[in-house]
Amino acid sequence: MPPSYFTSSPITRRRLAALTAAGGSAFLLSACGSDADPNADKSDVELLGLIRELQAALADGYDQRPADAPPGQVSKAFAPQTKALLGELDKAISDLGASQPPDATFSANLDVGSVADYEPLLIGVTNAVVPDLGTDALRQLAYRVTAAAAGRIAATAQIAGEDPAPEAFVLGELPPGFEGVSS
Amino acid sequence: MSTSRRQFLLRSAGVAATAGLPGSLLLATTALAATDETDALVNLIGLEQASALMYTTIGEKSSLSPATKKLINAFHDQEEAHVNAFSEALKQLGEDAPQTPTNVADINELKGLGQAKSEKDLLGFAIALEQKLVAAYLAATSDFETGDVIRSGSQVAADHMQHLVALRIANQVPASRAIVLPQPKAASPPPSSDNPSSTDSTSTDSTSTDSSTGDSTAAN
Asked: How far apart are the C-alpha atoms of A25 and A104, rounded to whole Å?
């Protein structure tokens, strides 16, 4: 791997907010430092497990609780895709030699209002871990997970008459207590 | 430069902010040969530039509804943001970004755009190119090496998927098909006087129970 031409780690969202409040863009640039990537030492199985937790919550939610889901038939449209990607994550974990997916570590503590609230969390967590995944195939799977989640968010918004793509860079959100960077 | 810095600049002040970066912020680099990562970035920037020019062209058409025009204008601005971000990344990796194209006729991906007249035709054209963009970013995971580039690539691929879904729904595609992911397919190099014309095949979709997405092949 060639030397990194950027700062060693991206800034955390919390620090970005603090610096933004402190001054203008020039100050922000000069003051930005680097924060350690807490996921750098995790195995691919552990990293995929983090993504899988949220993908499973979505697949389960869209399949079993359509009444809580976005308006119309959208939730039923989302169930096959979320299940299919969950299957791909499970296969990837199995191919790495794990007999079963890692235990859930943070999703049980999440206070979400509806199934759809998991989508930005899935994007945030996946964005946080994707650079640490060890193979091209796993990174491509992670890209597909975030792209699919972003697409479902856009579909829900578009059907509701809201902006389907408000950001040029889809960052997602990090769950409370989750250690990682999504931006 | 970290992805977060780049994003903050792009959100707050657009191109001017990127151009005004302090020289000390740009890490000293030695002249390096092109790598798979820089080649991928060059190709993706070329595709983003083509998309921005496409949206400029489509946005001028009187056949668009106000809602569609709003989408087109927003997506144009986001493509510009992608170009700026990855051009800066390329610069820090020691390579020059491709020049901004101004003539639709010079871009292979925009062949046939002039024949698209109705809103349906124009949406179909944009859908086909956004499909190519998503496919190209998915394929680029085998070339990206730098952590910031990998993460930014994921964020931008997600944005293009949102464009694709929104355009499909605007073109009356049901949600179950609108959310279908394209298959990965690498972007072609940007056009130059030495590049012969080539015909791309339509990307096939995956992760869906339907095989049809109602997309036009006008750009292929």
From this structure: 39
